[in-house]
Amino acid sequence: MQSIAEQFPRRAFVTNGHEDWRTVVEGRVLATTPKFGGRVKVKRWTEDEGRWIPASTLRVVAEDERVLDCDGSCGGTGVFRGGGMILNGKHVGGTSGPCYRCSGNGKQTPKDRGRNRYYDNHVRRFAV
Ligand SMILES: [Zn+2]
Fold it and tell me: From the CA of 85, how far away is ligand 1's center (Å)?
């Protein structure tokens, strides 16, 4: 059986798989300990300090598994469309520019998602 340190190499990206931003844990492995049944110190995007998480709730995410299609209005094109309409397959009117949710890549990295999660739950709430 692999030790906790072998299962969770330093700097590996781990997640607990939660979708809810309040309970999700995603971040880099800072340290591990075999104490308490195995714990992993995870550095989350939103926190300066790492926190100890039970290893049994975490899994390592492969680098390429972490890149997802953009969930924003660009539909994977990387181009943000505000207002206007689609006419004969072309976007007319309104504004367009690099999609803020994916930084114009059409794909979202964990950093993008962390930023979007913050935006969705902190910034937008106050704008309504
Ligand atoms: Zn996008």
Answer: 17
